[in-house]
Design brief:
Elements: H1 2-42, H2 50-71, H3 87-121, H4 135-164, H5 168-175, H6 180-188, H7 190-197
Helix pairs in contact: 1-2, 1-4, 2-4, 3-4, 3-5, 4-5, 6-7
Length: 201
């Protein structure tokens, strides 16, 4: 159990680091596109490749955003019935949602791997002046889906351990969805919620 929680803590740290990397990458991408637009309007020249790089960054950051959103319990779910149920039925639905998410990430990872494998086998490069070997951005993209799968597995193991110990509330706090009140509190007091995330269970 402690091993599973330690693994989840490490995954959470990696996920947070990925948000910073992804954020700076998106800012850099926006800056690159802005410079390219200014050069086109003023000097009539283009840096070339800005849109291609933006496409790679968008795909990669999207893949790595899935686990971050999962850990923040921010994936959207219809909660009309959910909010009116008791703790144990809610946890059962949370586990079902986690299983559905596992099916999704398995499908995404499977197809992403096929795309990556084809690019490696055929030594594909982009049909642009940059001639980027496609396996490079696709490897990082595929790694995002693998990390998503690892995050799901870690959450499932920790949840199973809590269930065996009868800690239904802990499972709900880990994989359940935020109530409206919790979302408001998180927006109003982000520092306090960050401290809660680091408090050992």
């Amino acid at each position: 159990m402690n091993t599973a929680r330690s693994g989840l803590a490490a995954i959470t740290a990696i996920a947070k680091a990925s948000t910073w990397v992804g954020g700076f990458a998106l800012l850099g991408c926006a800056l690159l596109i802005g410079i390219d637009l200014i050069l086109r309007k003023t000097l009539g020249i283009s840096m070339g490749g800005a849109d291609e790089i933006a496409g790679y960054i968008l795909a990669v950051t999207s893949a790595w955003a899935f686990p971050v959103t999962l850990l923040k319990r921010s994936h959207i779910r219809v909660d009309i019935l959910y909010a009116r149920l008791g703790l144990k039925p809610r946890v059962a639905l949370d586990l079902f949602a986690l299983a559905c998410m596992a099916v999704l990430v398995s499908t995404l990872a499977f197809h992403a791997w096929n795309v990556l494998q084809d690019s490696i086998d055929y030594r594909s490069v982009s049909n642009t002046p940059l001639q980027v070997p496609q396996w490079i951005p696709q490897s990082i993209w595929f790694a995002g889906y693998l990390f998503f799968a690892l995050t799901l597995l870690s959450l499932a193991l920790v949840s199973l351990g809590d269930l065996l110990r009868g800690r239904w509330g802990a499972v709900s706090a880990l994989i359940g969805i935020n109530t409206v009140e919790q979302e408001i509190e998180e927006e109003l007091y982000p520092a306090a919620n960050t401290a809660k995330e680091h408090t050992p269970c």
